[in-house]
Structures
1.
Amino acid sequence: MIDTRAGTGRGLGLGPDRRPSAQAMTIVQQSAAAVTDRPVALAEAFYRHLFQLAPDVREMFPEDMTAQNERLCRALLAAVQALVDPDRFAAGMENTLRRLGHDHAHRYAVKPEHYPYVGHALVRAVRDVSGDWTVATSSAWIWVYDWMSAHMLASGFRLE
């Protein structure tokens, strides 16, 4: 089992100050490798789950999801890659995630309450496409998503 003890009390008790551990990242890398060759399947599974969980968000997306699918996969895999070598890349990805959070809030009207649905949809999509799923895999992906969403929420919803 992955050690998910932390200090923020959010979600799993993780947050922007607690990057996923090397153990969690090894697990995430393995499952990410299994889906890297199937980005369309991952994106389609993700949006299928998201729209089932939160049907009201469908109107926030274009009818043709081709470009959106590519953006999702590119952003997700970049975040995973940044965490593989956190000393070199995680701080830059954290800044990128804060900008994305701001853009999602102000350009696309994404609300904080949408984030749990996105997390559930992501974990389910990776589970569906990777084909090899365990409790540890689920925990690791939740940790990575918690880290990503904590940074997106950190700047995306400030009053200006």
Note: The CA atoms of residues 29 and 118 lie 20 Å apart.
2.
Amino acid sequence: MSHGAGTTGRWSRDLFRKSSRSNGSGNGNCVAVAVVGGDVALGDTKSPVADSYASLRVSTADLGALVTGIKSGDLA
């Protein structure tokens, strides 16, 4: 299931970039990210959703605020 930032439809796998920290060892580091316009889709490459990795979609502004909050320690 995808959660939206005003986006509709599936994001195909070819839009996603797999994290350079992802590996094939099965240790859980399998993150993929796609950016289209002002939206970001995040997903787990081990648990694809149909023909996409997107399991969470947010605006770039919201993702930026989340990352900033985590880095500053305001969000844990």
Note: Residues 22 and 30 are 5 Å apart (CA to CA).
3.
Amino acid sequence: MPTITVQDGTQIFYKDWGTGQPIVFHHGWPLSADDWDAQMMFFLGKGYRVIAHDRRGHGRSTQTATGNEMDTYAADMAALAKHLDLKGAVHIGHSTGGGEVTRYVAQYGGGGRVAKAVIIGAVPPVMVKSDRNPGGTPIEVFDGYRAALAANRAQLYRDIPTGPFYGFNRAGAKVSEGVIGNWWRQGMIGGIKAHYDCIKAFSETDFTEDLKTIEVPVLVMHGDDDQIVPYADSAPLSAKLLKKGTLRTYPGFPHGMCTTHPEVINPDLLAFIKAA
């Protein structure tokens, strides 16, 4: 398997297919690069070089007990980008991966390394409720995730995709057992300690200053029926903070809309990438 070894000895697994302008995909918690199958195949077929990695502690990368926070995630990505000699890349992140993209582009995206970015159902500006973020999600919700993860990770990783992640708990939803099983498979491959720590990383990291400093065009995509990262406290706020932000809202779409609606999401991504 292709991997790189970063500064602290962690091995990061990645896929690198095709030629042309590079598109780098950043997955959500607690998944892996495999969550981007529908996008990797689509853009490979359009003549792009497609790259996706397993975040440390996730998928086939090292199950780390340390470094499971956004600064290290961004540094790992910078090491991979240097290893692959990426220039003029488009970085696309979903959920936690959207936070990773935001931190990476803000800290390492200069010098022509990044051309554009996309954040989808993403956690910025900040998820957790506080005096500064009164519309956020109460800390008790994330404490509940941590408790459920520690008590019975395998069951939690059935409950999330069966219910809110893909909107399969909505009346009339077309439920896919294959999609649910694939979510469970990806989650269980990773390490419990990294997944536990990542809950704090995706819920409590404040990306406000990162968003303000990004110079490249950024597309913010979000379903307004997202039950994981509530729409009102995320996408519209991020788009306003970005210098070159564009907000695209998808009525009725769930958090996992890249999987449930690739026939809509992929052409919209392509149009943004190709736009002057």
Note: The two ends are 36 Å apart (CA to CA).
